[in-house]
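Name: Galactosylgalactosylxylosylprotein 3-beta-glucuronosyltransferase
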Amino acid sequence: MNQEVRFRLKHVIIFLSVIGFLFFYSLSSNRDCEGEQSSRSNVDGAESWEAGQGRDAFLPNRKGPTIYAVTPTYSRPVQKAELTRLSHVIRLMPNVFWVIVEDAAQTSSLVTNLLRRSGLQERSVQLFAKTPTNFKLKGKDPNWLKPRGVEQRNEALKWIRNRLKHNALGDDGTEQSHSIVYFMDDDNTYSTELFEEISKIERGKVGVWPVGLVGGLMVEKPVLNRDGLVLGFNSAWKPERPFPLDMAGFAISADLLLENPQAQFSYEVERGYQESEILRHLTIAHDMQPLANQCKDVLVWHTRTETPKLDAEKSLQKSGKKSNDGMEV
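Structure predicted for Galactosylgalactosylxylosylprotein 3-beta-glucuronosyltransferase:
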């Protein structure tokens, strides 16, 4: 009997010893895992934080004023490619309303199809305004010889003013919502951050910022004084202009356009004076609102697409054929 008790006691002791060993082993393993996980999380956490910061820079601005982005365009081999690039930027910015104005006698299926495929039909309008024949470039004329986009931008301004007036008529006495107008040419490159900056433009103000790769310089930019006021511009090309800046370098609070119906573009001004022609009715340099980190950040670049060499296509067309037969390129 005693032997049997001792035998059972021996097994109990062995069993408890095994359990105790496994328990202490699991505690030790957990400490090692926690230490390794903690070390890894410090690295991964930093990486994920940095990645998160990068993603945040591209999150769409779902609040703020409506930005009317005015894009004059005309039929040419790179038209669809350039409008497609712009559409991808605009899709990321829900407060941007795209005003496309074609230099044509009627709207084209190419632009209609592009708006449909990009999902921008609900926040865009497709207009047309044909440039008078005597102001059209001919043959091998350089693109600077005659003013471009005058008719189209003025048509857009007319449409925007009518839309704003119509919205105001339906107002219930509350303050009309803030909106901004930006001339967004289709041959430039735009950062989404630019539209975040444009959204900061206050009522009654014209916002300004640097533009890269323009006017023979790496950057054209407003020059500010110590108080952050615009003193002038660092333009190297025709610096005597009242506003020597690029079309991509400013945007206008829409209330200024309603208050100054005479503000528009003109065929009567010399080359390089279109920006000055509209801005002279709206503001002075000192009253402009500097943006983009006090005009230290470049968020738009003047990057014209190279004209494609289509000699083989021209030869093909002479034989009554074309490579894009039945296709929209």
